[in-house]
Amino acid sequence: MAFTPQVSVVVPTFARPSLVTRAVRSVLAQTATDIEVIVVVDGPDAATGAALAEIGDPRVRVVELPGRGGAPNARNTGIREARAPWTALLDDDDEWLPTKLAVQFDVARRSRVSSPVVASRLINKTPRAEFVLPRRLPEPGEPISEYLTVRRGLFHGDGFIQTSTIMAPTELLRRVPFTVGLRRQQELDWTVRATGHPDVELVFAAEPLVLWHQDEDRPRISLSSPWEAQLAWLQGIRPLITPRAYAAITMSIISSMAAPTRSLRVFRLLLAEARRHGSPGLVDYLTFAQIWLIPPALRHRVRDRILARRTVRPAPPSATASPSAAIPVATELGADVGR
Questions:
Q1: Pairing state of beta strands 86-89 and 7-13?
Q2: 37-76: per-residue pLDDT in tens?
Q3: Quick one: which of 8, 77, 76, 15 has its CA closest to 46?
Q4: What is the pTM for the complete model shown?
Q5: Is the separation of the CB atoms in 234 and 246 below 8 Å?
Q6: Residue 325: is it exposed, middle or buried by C-beta count within 10 angstroms (0-12/13-18/19+)?
Q7: Cis check: omega of the bond before 134, within 30 degrees of 0
């Protein structure tokens, strides 16, 4: 009889054998052992195949694609290959803490809907510091698009979701695939589209369960996307998000990508876009100004220095804690995560 795991873990990768083997080993070290690991290699890559073969665990399955298609396409391929009722996602340069899946299954069992999207907090590790994101969890009735995008301080990170934290029903991930060709904000795009379905709810494990390695000296596709393409994406999902979220994305995420142009024309275009189709608040205007006026490297240094000094990691909740109960994590501070 064929083995049917409880959860399939999908890991897209290409040409990073040391990183992907670290990621896969963090999955195999989970306290929840009824799993399969599907590593989707995004194109011919003999070194990665050889490194994964050395792990020697029958729960690891490698799918090699014939050519490069990008991370969203690789994730979708892995999800189609999944044999379990649940699928969890892991980027090849991140790691899971050992209880990640076990805690998320406990959260899923307490969900009120048939298709919960279960995320968690994470530990953001940069070359200079580490801190916990998101700083708060969604409030009852809060639109998910606003939770994920609207800032309460000058920097990003109050509400947040990252791909390596996501576990969801395999059926849902097939019903709502990742957008192929989208190079940034893949998890935001997917979450907004998925939670638009009436049987879906975003719920959180309150403790950090993922190590998010932000090595800013290593090339990252997610940091090189042209702002014009991202603006076109935003315009396409406008019916799915609130005006407040539209303004926040335009004036923070897209502006952080466009600011290196130092173009007054682009500055004016994005400001007009946010005001025409969105509903910006004071924090949005202040964020917009600091993104255009302060060099990114300086913003990152200030962010890390502040958060390394003041952020307190949340303690693990008790077994009876509400999965959506927020734990204070330096809520007065901001985190300019790569922006």
A1: parallel
A2: 999 999 999 999 999 999 999 999 999 999 999 999 999 9
A3: 15
A4: 0.85
A5: yes
A6: exposed
A7: yes
